[in-house]
Hints:
Blueprint: E1 2-5, E2 9-16, E3 22-29, H1 31-41, E4 47-49, E5 51-53, H2 56-67, E6 76-78, E7 84-90, E8 93-99, E9 122-126, H3 135-146, E10 151-155, H4 166-179, E11 182-186, H5 187-193, H6 200-208, E12 214-218, E13 224-227, E14 234-236, H7 249-263, H8 277-295
Parallel strand pairs: 1-4, 1-9, 2-7, 5-6, 9-10, 10-11, 11-12
Antiparallel strand pairs: 2-3, 7-8, 12-13, 13-14
Amino acid sequence: MILCCGEALIDMIPQPTQGAQTCFTPHAGGAVFNTAIALGRLGSKPGFVTGLSRDLFGVQLAQALEESHVDCDLVIRSDLPTTLAFVELNDGQARYTFYDENTAGRSLSPDHLPDIPASVTALYFGGISLISEPCADFYAALALREAPGRAIIIDPNIRAAFIRDEVLYRARLDKMIAVADIVKVSDEDLDWIIPGPEALATKARKLRAQGPHAVIVTRGGDGALAFGAGDEAVEVPAKRVSIVDTVGAGDTFNAGVLASLMAAGLLSKARMKDIGPSAMRAALMHGACVAAVTVSRAGANPPWAHELP
Length: 309
């Protein structure tokens, strides 16, 4: 099992009305939530660790997880409210405004660390849950504790405008990257982590030198690259589809990659060294295929396995 560790929140998606005003419709979301949902729909039987509210939005999130076959035994429930993310769409690109103070997800601390069952071979981390304290410390502590025996995958999905203490965030992220087996970043994430004019490949190799077995870099419509043990990068193109919006695109790409590696029996600490160019290329292609379906329809709505071409 892969255990997805991070935020579950409500995306408030703008909807046009007959008048001049815009209304917002609540959709279950969050970067790590979206990846868990996509993995469940792809048949990978994931688990989920998050702080989940008992309010009406928390109930909506729990129902969505159950419907997509995500194991919620390790979810930590409370009476605090659910995080809300209001989405602004410009030419299909999503921007977010978060309402996250004193919420069920953000209020997790290292005191809440759960016992992880032996069936879990890999843990996936990412999103805004790695930014804000105390939950960021919860997830960092979990990654560092489990890294010696289980594969660690991280997608920081950096929201620079959301970071209040950049020095603290960078220090925490560096510790997590050092114990990670796979780090996935967008080209924008990579430029933020390693600023300066160096080429993308140079920066990716520098990031890999910090500890990961592999670094995956997505470039939107230009496809994805992976940098592993060898000097040569593995590259796959993006699938060409008519884009409705990009909400959840990177999250579902991650699910496709992880589902492919899991199906190949490679998603464990012991098998990380066996992920060669062929397996990585297949994983990236599957990720691109899953993401293409997601961007072709509104919101973060990952495909079921039977919907893939």
